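Re: the request from the purification team.
They wanted to know what the chain is likely to look like in 3D before they choose a buffer screen. I agreed to run a prediction and write the result into the notebook, where they can find it.
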Amino acid sequence: MRILVFSSTPWNIDNSFGNTYSNLFEGIDDFEFANIYTSYGVPKNNITSSYFQINEKSLYKNLFNRNIKTGKVIGSDNDAIVLTNRETNTINAAKKRRWRILFWLRRALWYISRWKSIELIEFVRNFKPDIIFVPLYHSTYLNRIILYIKELTGVQMVCYVSDDVYTLKRISANPLFWVDRLTTRRMVKKVVDQCEYMYVISDIQKLEYEKIFKKNCKILIKGADFKDENQDVKTELNKPIRMVFTGNVSAGRWKSLELIVNALEKINSKEILAQIYIYTMTPMTETMKKSLYSEGNSFLMGGVPAENIPQIQKDSDILIHVESTKLKERLEVRHSFSTKIVDYFKANRCIFAVGKDDVASIDYLINEDAAIVAQSEEDVFIKLSELVNDSKLMFEYSNKAWECGKRNHQKNVIQDSLYQELKLLAEED
Protein backbone atom coordinates (compact mmCIF):
# COMPACT_ATOMS: atom_id res chain seq x y z
CA MET A 1 0.00 0.00 0.00
CA ARG A 2 1.48 3.33 -1.08
CA ILE A 3 0.84 6.27 1.24
CA LEU A 4 1.65 9.88 0.37
CA VAL A 5 2.35 11.99 3.45
CA PHE A 6 2.54 15.80 3.51
CA SER A 7 4.33 17.80 6.18
CA SER A 8 5.71 21.24 6.89
CA THR A 9 8.96 19.76 8.23
CA PRO A 10 11.13 16.91 6.94
CA TRP A 11 10.37 13.39 8.16
CA ASN A 12 13.09 13.47 10.80
CA ILE A 13 12.89 11.65 14.14
CA ASP A 14 14.50 14.67 15.84
CA ASN A 15 11.35 16.78 15.26
CA SER A 16 7.85 16.19 16.63
CA PHE A 17 6.27 15.26 13.30
CA GLY A 18 9.00 12.79 12.34
CA ASN A 19 9.13 11.22 15.79
CA THR A 20 5.37 10.65 15.90
CA TYR A 21 4.95 9.38 12.35
CA SER A 22 7.92 7.04 12.60
CA ASN A 23 6.43 5.63 15.78
CA LEU A 24 3.05 5.09 14.12
CA PHE A 25 4.28 3.51 10.89
CA GLU A 26 7.72 1.98 11.45
CA GLY A 27 7.53 -1.80 11.31
CA ILE A 28 4.42 -2.06 9.12
CA ASP A 29 5.97 -3.85 6.17
CA ASP A 30 3.06 -3.52 3.75
CA PHE A 31 3.30 0.28 3.68
CA GLU A 32 5.46 2.26 1.26
CA PHE A 33 5.80 6.00 1.86
CA ALA A 34 6.50 9.19 -0.01
CA ASN A 35 6.80 12.51 1.78
CA ILE A 36 6.28 15.99 0.34
CA TYR A 37 7.56 18.65 2.75
CA THR A 38 7.67 22.44 2.57
CA SER A 39 10.66 23.57 4.59
CA TYR A 40 14.40 23.18 4.97
CA GLY A 41 16.22 20.23 6.45
CA VAL A 42 17.17 16.62 5.88
CA PRO A 43 14.94 13.55 6.38
CA LYS A 44 16.06 11.08 9.02
CA ASN A 45 14.09 7.94 9.79
CA ASN A 46 14.16 4.16 9.53
CA ILE A 47 11.28 3.96 7.07
CA THR A 48 12.12 3.45 3.40
CA SER A 49 10.66 6.56 1.81
CA SER A 50 11.03 8.92 -1.12
CA TYR A 51 11.00 12.65 -0.53
CA PHE A 52 10.13 15.82 -2.40
CA GLN A 53 11.21 19.17 -0.97
CA ILE A 54 9.75 22.60 -1.74
CA ASN A 55 11.16 25.63 0.09
CA GLU A 56 11.05 29.42 0.08
CA LYS A 57 14.60 29.90 -1.21
CA SER A 58 13.84 28.06 -4.44
CA LEU A 59 10.42 29.68 -4.78
CA TYR A 60 11.92 33.15 -4.45
CA LYS A 61 14.77 32.52 -6.91
CA ASN A 62 12.33 31.03 -9.42
CA LEU A 63 10.38 34.30 -9.53
CA PHE A 64 13.40 35.86 -11.27
CA ASN A 65 14.74 32.81 -13.07
CA ARG A 66 12.33 30.15 -14.30
CA ASN A 67 15.23 27.76 -14.87
CA ILE A 68 15.59 27.34 -11.11
CA LYS A 69 13.35 24.50 -9.99
CA THR A 70 10.93 25.19 -7.16
CA GLY A 71 11.02 21.62 -5.89
CA LYS A 72 13.33 18.63 -5.98
CA VAL A 73 13.42 14.92 -5.25
CA ILE A 74 15.74 14.22 -2.32
CA GLY A 75 18.16 11.48 -3.29
CA SER A 76 19.90 8.81 -1.26
CA ASP A 77 22.72 11.27 -0.54
CA ASN A 78 20.23 13.50 1.32
CA ASP A 79 20.93 16.52 -0.88
CA ALA A 80 18.14 18.55 0.72
CA ILE A 81 18.38 22.33 0.94
CA VAL A 82 19.20 23.46 4.49
CA LEU A 83 19.44 26.82 6.22
CA THR A 84 22.66 28.61 7.09
CA ASN A 85 23.26 29.41 10.76
CA ARG A 86 22.39 33.05 10.10
CA GLU A 87 19.09 32.12 8.43
CA THR A 88 18.26 29.73 11.26
CA ASN A 89 18.90 32.46 13.84
CA THR A 90 16.63 34.87 11.95
CA ILE A 91 13.78 32.36 11.86
CA ASN A 92 14.25 31.50 15.54
CA ALA A 93 14.14 35.21 16.39
CA ALA A 94 10.89 35.56 14.44
CA LYS A 95 9.40 32.63 16.34
CA LYS A 96 10.49 33.99 19.70
CA ARG A 97 9.05 37.44 19.02
CA ARG A 98 6.11 36.23 16.94
CA TRP A 99 6.83 38.52 14.01
CA ARG A 100 3.55 37.83 12.25
CA ILE A 101 4.46 40.09 9.31
CA LEU A 102 7.33 37.76 8.33
CA PHE A 103 5.03 34.76 8.29
CA TRP A 104 2.51 36.68 6.19
CA LEU A 105 5.27 37.58 3.74
CA ARG A 106 6.14 33.91 3.52
CA ARG A 107 2.51 33.08 2.85
CA ALA A 108 2.39 35.72 0.12
CA LEU A 109 5.48 34.20 -1.52
CA TRP A 110 3.81 30.81 -1.64
CA TYR A 111 0.67 32.38 -3.08
CA ILE A 112 2.42 34.04 -6.05
CA SER A 113 5.09 31.40 -6.65
CA ARG A 114 5.18 28.53 -9.14
CA TRP A 115 5.15 25.55 -6.79
CA LYS A 116 2.92 23.58 -9.23
CA SER A 117 5.98 22.27 -11.01
CA ILE A 118 6.45 19.47 -13.51
CA GLU A 119 8.82 17.87 -11.00
CA LEU A 120 6.12 17.79 -8.32
CA ILE A 121 3.54 16.30 -10.66
CA GLU A 122 5.99 13.66 -11.92
CA PHE A 123 6.95 12.75 -8.35
CA VAL A 124 3.33 12.13 -7.40
CA ARG A 125 2.44 10.27 -10.60
CA ASN A 126 5.52 8.05 -10.39
CA PHE A 127 4.70 7.14 -6.80
CA LYS A 128 1.02 6.38 -7.59
CA PRO A 129 -0.36 6.74 -4.06
CA ASP A 130 -3.25 4.62 -2.81
CA ILE A 131 -3.96 6.98 0.09
CA ILE A 132 -3.06 10.54 1.05
CA PHE A 133 -2.33 10.93 4.78
CA VAL A 134 -1.91 14.51 5.97
CA PRO A 135 -1.15 16.21 9.28
CA LEU A 136 -3.78 18.93 9.59
CA TYR A 137 -2.03 22.28 9.98
CA HIS A 138 -3.26 25.87 9.81
CA SER A 139 -0.72 26.43 7.02
CA THR A 140 -2.65 27.88 4.08
CA TYR A 141 0.05 27.16 1.49
CA LEU A 142 0.54 23.54 2.55
CA ASN A 143 -3.21 23.02 2.55
CA ARG A 144 -3.41 24.45 -0.98
CA ILE A 145 -0.79 21.93 -2.12
CA ILE A 146 -2.69 19.11 -0.41
CA LEU A 147 -5.94 20.04 -2.14
CA TYR A 148 -4.18 20.30 -5.50
CA ILE A 149 -2.60 16.84 -5.17
CA LYS A 150 -5.90 15.39 -3.92
CA GLU A 151 -7.58 16.63 -7.09
CA LEU A 152 -4.67 15.43 -9.24
CA THR A 153 -4.71 11.88 -7.88
CA GLY A 154 -8.35 11.40 -6.93
CA VAL A 155 -7.40 8.95 -4.16
CA GLN A 156 -8.87 8.70 -0.67
CA MET A 157 -7.50 11.06 1.97
CA VAL A 158 -7.43 11.11 5.77
CA CYS A 159 -5.98 13.71 8.12
CA TYR A 160 -4.38 13.60 11.55
CA VAL A 161 -4.74 16.62 13.83
CA SER A 162 -2.96 17.08 17.15
CA ASP A 163 -3.79 20.72 17.99
CA ASP A 164 -6.87 22.90 17.76
CA VAL A 165 -6.38 24.40 14.31
CA TYR A 166 -9.97 25.48 13.75
CA THR A 167 -12.11 26.77 16.61
CA LEU A 168 -12.23 30.40 17.74
CA LYS A 169 -11.72 29.54 21.40
CA ARG A 170 -8.71 31.79 21.79
CA ILE A 171 -7.81 35.02 23.55
CA SER A 172 -6.12 37.87 21.68
CA ALA A 173 -6.54 41.64 21.52
CA ASN A 174 -4.58 41.73 18.27
CA PRO A 175 -6.91 42.13 15.25
CA LEU A 176 -4.20 40.65 13.00
CA PHE A 177 -4.44 37.41 14.98
CA TRP A 178 -8.14 37.12 14.18
CA VAL A 179 -7.61 37.97 10.52
CA ASP A 180 -5.02 35.21 10.40
CA ARG A 181 -7.21 32.72 12.26
CA LEU A 182 -10.25 33.33 10.08
CA THR A 183 -8.16 33.04 6.93
CA THR A 184 -6.44 29.81 7.85
CA ARG A 185 -9.53 28.03 9.19
CA ARG A 186 -11.25 28.29 5.79
CA MET A 187 -8.47 26.24 4.23
CA VAL A 188 -8.55 23.80 7.13
CA LYS A 189 -12.27 23.24 6.51
CA LYS A 190 -11.64 22.60 2.80
CA VAL A 191 -9.06 19.93 3.60
CA VAL A 192 -11.30 18.24 6.17
CA ASP A 193 -14.20 18.21 3.70
CA GLN A 194 -12.03 16.14 1.34
CA CYS A 195 -11.12 13.59 4.03
CA GLU A 196 -12.98 10.33 4.57
CA TYR A 197 -12.44 10.57 8.31
CA MET A 198 -10.09 12.21 10.81
CA TYR A 199 -7.55 10.95 13.29
CA VAL A 200 -7.42 13.07 16.45
CA ILE A 201 -5.22 12.97 19.53
CA SER A 202 -7.57 13.33 22.51
CA ASP A 203 -11.11 12.72 23.74
CA ILE A 204 -11.71 16.46 24.04
CA GLN A 205 -10.76 16.95 20.40
CA LYS A 206 -12.83 14.00 19.23
CA LEU A 207 -15.99 15.33 20.87
CA GLU A 208 -15.57 18.85 19.50
CA TYR A 209 -14.44 18.01 15.98
CA GLU A 210 -17.09 15.35 15.36
CA LYS A 211 -19.67 17.98 16.23
CA ILE A 212 -18.05 20.71 14.12
CA PHE A 213 -17.03 18.78 11.01
CA LYS A 214 -19.64 16.00 11.05
CA LYS A 215 -16.80 13.52 10.41
CA ASN A 216 -15.95 10.28 12.16
CA CYS A 217 -12.94 10.96 14.40
CA LYS A 218 -10.65 8.16 15.60
CA ILE A 219 -8.18 8.69 18.45
CA LEU A 220 -4.60 7.95 17.41
CA ILE A 221 -1.64 8.34 19.78
CA LYS A 222 1.88 6.97 19.46
CA GLY A 223 2.66 3.72 21.23
CA ALA A 224 5.51 1.70 22.71
CA ASP A 225 6.37 -1.87 23.64
CA PHE A 226 4.98 -2.50 27.13
CA LYS A 227 5.77 -6.21 27.43
CA ASP A 228 6.44 -7.08 31.08
CA GLU A 229 9.91 -8.41 30.31
CA ASN A 230 10.87 -4.96 28.98
CA GLN A 231 9.83 -3.08 32.11
CA ASP A 232 12.84 -1.21 33.52
CA VAL A 233 12.16 -1.31 37.25
CA LYS A 234 14.17 1.20 39.27
CA THR A 235 15.14 0.18 42.81
CA GLU A 236 17.54 2.96 43.80
CA LEU A 237 17.26 6.73 43.46
CA ASN A 238 19.91 9.24 42.47
CA LYS A 239 21.31 11.55 45.14
CA PRO A 240 20.20 14.24 44.72
CA ILE A 241 16.97 13.12 43.03
CA ARG A 242 17.23 13.67 39.29
CA MET A 243 14.21 15.32 37.66
CA VAL A 244 14.14 15.52 33.87
CA PHE A 245 12.03 17.50 31.41
CA THR A 246 12.27 16.71 27.70
CA GLY A 247 10.13 18.63 25.25
CA ASN A 248 8.74 21.91 24.04
CA VAL A 249 8.69 24.90 26.42
CA SER A 250 6.56 27.19 24.23
CA ALA A 251 2.87 28.07 24.79
CA GLY A 252 3.62 29.18 28.34
CA ARG A 253 5.04 25.82 29.42
CA TRP A 254 8.28 27.49 30.54
CA LYS A 255 6.28 29.45 33.14
CA SER A 256 5.09 26.19 34.68
CA LEU A 257 8.66 24.91 34.67
CA GLU A 258 9.58 28.11 36.49
CA LEU A 259 7.13 27.14 39.26
CA ILE A 260 9.05 23.89 39.69
CA VAL A 261 12.40 25.71 39.76
CA ASN A 262 11.06 28.15 42.38
CA ALA A 263 9.74 25.24 44.46
CA LEU A 264 13.13 23.51 44.28
CA GLU A 265 14.86 26.64 45.57
CA LYS A 266 12.72 26.40 48.72
CA ILE A 267 12.99 22.61 49.03
CA ASN A 268 16.79 22.77 48.65
CA SER A 269 17.32 25.74 50.98
CA LYS A 270 19.17 23.62 53.57
CA GLU A 271 20.23 20.61 51.52
CA ILE A 272 20.16 19.79 47.80
CA LEU A 273 17.46 17.10 47.66
CA ALA A 274 16.44 17.32 44.01
CA GLN A 275 17.54 18.95 40.76
CA ILE A 276 15.83 19.44 37.42
CA TYR A 277 17.51 19.02 34.02
CA ILE A 278 15.68 20.73 31.15
CA TYR A 279 16.21 19.37 27.62
CA THR A 280 14.48 21.35 24.88
CA MET A 281 14.90 22.24 21.22
CA THR A 282 12.71 25.34 21.68
CA PRO A 283 14.51 28.66 20.94
CA MET A 284 14.66 30.45 24.30
CA THR A 285 14.68 34.16 25.07
CA GLU A 286 16.96 35.62 27.74
CA THR A 287 13.90 36.05 29.98
CA MET A 288 13.12 32.35 29.70
CA LYS A 289 16.72 31.38 30.43
CA LYS A 290 16.93 33.62 33.51
CA SER A 291 13.63 32.26 34.82
CA LEU A 292 14.58 28.62 34.37
CA TYR A 293 18.20 28.63 35.54
CA SER A 294 18.92 28.45 39.25
CA GLU A 295 22.41 27.49 40.40
CA GLY A 296 22.42 24.07 42.00
CA ASN A 297 18.70 23.59 41.39
CA SER A 298 18.16 23.59 37.63
CA PHE A 299 20.23 22.99 34.50
CA LEU A 300 19.47 24.06 30.91
CA MET A 301 20.74 21.25 28.71
CA GLY A 302 19.54 22.47 25.29
CA GLY A 303 18.47 20.00 22.62
CA VAL A 304 19.83 16.51 22.03
CA PRO A 305 19.27 13.94 19.24
CA ALA A 306 16.08 11.89 19.57
CA GLU A 307 18.02 8.64 19.94
CA ASN A 308 19.59 9.96 23.18
CA ILE A 309 16.29 10.82 24.85
CA PRO A 310 15.24 7.31 26.04
CA GLN A 311 18.45 6.87 28.04
CA ILE A 312 18.17 10.38 29.49
CA GLN A 313 14.65 9.55 30.65
CA LYS A 314 15.72 6.21 32.12
CA ASP A 315 18.54 7.88 34.06
CA SER A 316 15.99 10.09 35.82
CA ASP A 317 13.98 9.51 38.99
CA ILE A 318 11.11 11.85 38.10
CA LEU A 319 9.96 12.90 34.63
CA ILE A 320 8.30 16.29 34.25
CA HIS A 321 5.32 17.19 32.08
CA VAL A 322 4.02 20.75 32.05
CA GLU A 323 1.27 22.79 30.48
CA SER A 324 0.59 26.46 31.10
CA THR A 325 -1.77 27.35 33.94
CA LYS A 326 -2.74 30.63 32.22
CA LEU A 327 -6.06 30.71 30.34
CA LYS A 328 -4.68 32.19 27.11
CA GLU A 329 -2.11 29.43 26.65
CA ARG A 330 -4.45 26.73 27.94
CA LEU A 331 -6.84 27.52 25.13
CA GLU A 332 -3.99 27.05 22.66
CA VAL A 333 -3.16 23.54 23.87
CA ARG A 334 -6.45 22.29 25.31
CA HIS A 335 -6.80 19.62 22.56
CA SER A 336 -3.17 18.55 22.65
CA PHE A 337 -1.72 15.35 24.05
CA SER A 338 2.05 15.56 24.27
CA THR A 339 3.50 12.50 22.57
CA LYS A 340 6.40 12.50 25.03
CA ILE A 341 3.96 11.28 27.70
CA VAL A 342 3.99 7.84 26.06
CA ASP A 343 7.80 7.96 26.14
CA TYR A 344 7.54 8.74 29.85
CA PHE A 345 5.26 5.73 30.39
CA LYS A 346 7.76 3.56 28.55
CA ALA A 347 10.64 4.81 30.73
CA ASN A 348 8.75 3.53 33.80
CA ARG A 349 9.52 6.59 35.89
CA CYS A 350 7.36 8.64 38.21
CA ILE A 351 5.68 11.52 36.36
CA PHE A 352 5.16 14.91 38.00
CA ALA A 353 2.85 17.13 35.96
CA VAL A 354 1.83 20.78 36.23
CA GLY A 355 -1.28 22.15 34.53
CA LYS A 356 -5.04 22.58 34.67
CA ASP A 357 -7.51 19.75 34.08
CA ASP A 358 -9.19 21.53 31.15
CA VAL A 359 -6.13 20.64 29.03
CA ALA A 360 -6.35 17.20 27.38
CA SER A 361 -2.99 15.83 28.54
CA ILE A 362 -3.51 16.86 32.18
CA ASP A 363 -7.09 15.57 32.15
CA TYR A 364 -5.82 12.22 30.85
CA LEU A 365 -3.10 11.87 33.50
CA ILE A 366 -5.60 12.65 36.26
CA ASN A 367 -8.28 10.27 34.97
CA GLU A 368 -5.75 7.45 34.54
CA ASP A 369 -4.01 8.24 37.86
CA ALA A 370 -0.78 8.00 35.89
CA ALA A 371 1.00 11.01 37.40
CA ILE A 372 1.15 13.28 40.41
CA VAL A 373 -0.53 16.45 39.15
CA ALA A 374 -0.23 19.98 40.57
CA GLN A 375 -2.68 22.62 39.33
CA SER A 376 -1.41 25.74 41.12
CA GLU A 377 1.81 27.31 42.39
CA GLU A 378 1.02 26.30 45.97
CA ASP A 379 0.16 22.80 44.78
CA VAL A 380 3.53 22.50 43.03
CA PHE A 381 5.47 23.21 46.22
CA ILE A 382 3.33 21.00 48.48
CA LYS A 383 3.21 17.96 46.18
CA LEU A 384 6.82 18.20 45.03
CA SER A 385 8.02 18.51 48.64
CA GLU A 386 6.07 15.39 49.55
CA LEU A 387 7.33 13.48 46.52
CA VAL A 388 11.06 14.11 46.92
CA ASN A 389 10.82 12.92 50.52
CA ASP A 390 8.82 9.76 49.78
CA SER A 391 10.59 7.14 47.68
CA LYS A 392 7.69 4.71 48.12
CA LEU A 393 5.33 7.20 46.47
CA MET A 394 7.84 7.72 43.67
CA PHE A 395 8.09 3.99 42.93
CA GLU A 396 4.30 3.62 43.17
CA TYR A 397 3.74 6.22 40.45
CA SER A 398 6.51 4.78 38.32
CA ASN A 399 4.51 1.57 38.14
CA LYS A 400 1.24 3.45 37.57
CA ALA A 401 2.79 5.19 34.56
CA TRP A 402 3.91 1.85 33.11
CA GLU A 403 0.51 0.24 33.68
CA CYS A 404 -1.25 3.13 31.94
CA GLY A 405 1.00 2.64 28.92
CA LYS A 406 0.35 -1.09 29.01
CA ARG A 407 -3.44 -0.54 29.07
CA ASN A 408 -3.72 2.14 26.43
CA HIS A 409 -0.57 2.49 24.33
CA GLN A 410 0.63 -0.93 23.17
CA LYS A 411 2.32 -0.17 19.86
CA ASN A 412 1.37 -3.43 18.14
CA VAL A 413 -2.31 -2.90 18.99
CA ILE A 414 -2.24 0.66 17.67
CA GLN A 415 -0.45 -0.33 14.47
CA ASP A 416 -2.72 -3.32 13.80
CA SER A 417 -5.77 -1.07 14.07
CA LEU A 418 -4.20 1.64 11.89
CA TYR A 419 -3.19 -0.90 9.24
CA GLN A 420 -6.68 -2.43 9.03
CA GLU A 421 -8.36 0.98 8.81
CA LEU A 422 -6.10 2.25 6.02
CA LYS A 423 -6.24 -1.05 4.14
CA LEU A 424 -10.03 -0.96 4.20
CA LEU A 425 -10.00 2.66 3.00
CA ALA A 426 -7.68 1.84 0.09
CA GLU A 427 -9.91 -1.05 -0.97
CA GLU A 428 -12.93 1.26 -1.08
CA ASP A 429 -11.30 3.50 -3.69
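For the purification team: The chain has 17 helices and 14 strands.
Please add any questions underneath this entry.
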